[in-house]
Write a structure and sequence with these properties.
single chain; alpha+beta; two-stranded antiparallel sheet; 3 helices; 15% helix; globular
Length: 125
């Protein structure tokens, strides 16, 4: 089973939901990126669509093997996988790591983030 997760938005260190991921991480992770497009949802969190058109910047973490199932279940809940807002998909990062990531589903009006980096773009306030 895949033991890594790539995060690009509010689950990144320093953002509002990092505390939900941090207990499951093996170490400090690494800056990384994946092919795809990043969007602002207008709801204080981003959405990603993975594919060859651009680059999404984020962070890749190894997850603790002892809590891997709990970590994935928690992230699926946080990302509303059951409700369909996002789906968990396997991506290959630009560092060559296979990782879980959360891809946008449907139902929101999206605005492109040209930099591909939520931490540079996010509204401060």
């Amino acid at each position: 089973m895949t033991r890594h997760v790539f995060v690009y938005g509010t689950l990144r260190p320093g953002d509002v939901r990092w505390h939900l991921l941090e207990p499951f991480t093996l170490d400090a992770g690494m800056t990384d990126s994946v092919p795809g497009e990043l969007f602002d949802t207008g709801l204080d969190y981003p959405a990603a669509v993975f594919g060859p058109r651009s680059t999404i910047h984020g962070h890749t973490f190894a997850l603790l093997e002892t809590s891997l199932d709990h970590a994935i279940a928690t992230l699926d809940e946080v990302e509303d996988v059951v409700g369909g807002e996002y789906s968990r998909v396997l991506v290959r990062t630009n560092r060559g790591i296979d990782a879980w990531a959360y891809q946008y589903g449907s139902g929101l009006d999206l605005t492109p983030i040209p930099s591909g980096d939520w931490l540079q773009h996010r509204p401060i306030g």
